[in-house]
Amino acid sequence: MQDNSINQLKKEYMNTPIPSELDFMIKKAFRENKINVSTNSKSLTKLIKITASIAAAIAVLTIGINTSPVFAEALSKVPVVSSIVKVLTFKEFKVNENNFQANIKVPAIEGLENKELQNSLNDKYLKQNKRLYEEFMKDTEELKTLGGGHMGIDAGYQIKTDNDKLLSIGRYVVNTAGSSSTTFQYDTIDKQKQILITLPSLFMDDSYIEIISKNIKEQMLQQINTDEGKIYWVEGGNSEGIPDSEFFKSIDTEQSFYINNAGKLVISFNKYEVAPGYMGTPKFEIPTEAIADILVGNEYIK
Amino acid sequence: MPKAKINIEKQLEAHVITYKDRYYRLAYSYVRNSEDALDIVQDSIIKALLSIESLKEPSFIATWFYRIIVNTSLDFLRKNKKLVLLDEEILCSIETGEADKYPDIDLQAALEALPHDCRSIIILRYFEDLKLEEIAEVLDENINTIKTRLYKSLKRLRIKIEEV
Lengths: 302, 164
Hints:
heterodimer; A: alpha+beta; Heat Shock Protein 90; six-stranded mixed β-sheet; three-stranded antiparallel β-sheet; B: Rna Polymerase Sigma Factor, Chain: A; 2 domains; 9 helices; 67% helix
């Protein structure tokens, strides 16, 4: 036995098969997560800017409805159109090769009277998904030149809420390059008023950021304490190797959210935003009591 | 963006790419399947980039990144309820009677049956050739604890090695 058996063990350990996509996956993980100013992060900044300008345009529209009596009247004359508003799959991008699978479904909203809103949303959906597809094709080519591996992307949408008043669409992107990442984005529309509901528009002032953040932190700690499988990057939590500076401090002004069928506000995070990857895309339902004092009204959230 | 930070990110990337097999194998030794091991390597890179400021010296990259891999693997197993936390020192030397006497051919199985910490010590010491001080750094334990566990693990594996 002796040294010989350790050598035998070492030999077996060193023979652990290395998947061919390891190298690619590592490079991709660095490329997508480095703070380094790369072309990737530049295009991301651009995307954020575009979304911001869409949000700005919608804010103007909301003000338009609220301040112009003519405009408001024009809208109120519209019969109940809510039932006609629907979401369809507008286009699909598909790739089905041995190890490369892409399945991208682009949603489109139909039946909104407010064509400007409808077009800007549909345009956003198409552009983002087209970009996903192009990136996937680029990555696939790169992976092929490196000798193969497997990779997949699955993008689509889920209707989170659809009632007389509200429509909440969640769009997801699941990336698998041997490993996976997921993002979720939501849009919530008031079908009667024909407006996009933004998170700030629900509240009287900015205090919602602090109040909601505090509530989420409490929920995180509570989950950690009752289920040892739960891990969040939060102060007082159980995450090892993550510096305090990366802990969840506060939601964004425009944090991803939707309003569920029970009329509760649900705040959503992307994978890796507040927890390790295997925690998925964490969601927190905010108890209405916690925010009742600062809500603009109880039209949406109950 | 501070130049130093970009620089250290580049060093980290070069390092991980060069030694990717080592990190993958270590992750694999915890989760025993390739998909989860790839997931852990990817999660570890993201964690490393998030906490790059905690890396004081570029010369510590290896132990620092090993440590992230170990912690991420343990977090993963905890999340998937495959991990029972017991006193590692007792476990390293636990005797389960006759059946525990592994013949040579089952040495691999015996190694896999070791608690994570004990197995990691063996792996890092003999397969990846880390020094005991480095292992202490990776596993965040003091060096005497590492020595004790290594000794007990070897004993359990019925392996005699001159220099520990």
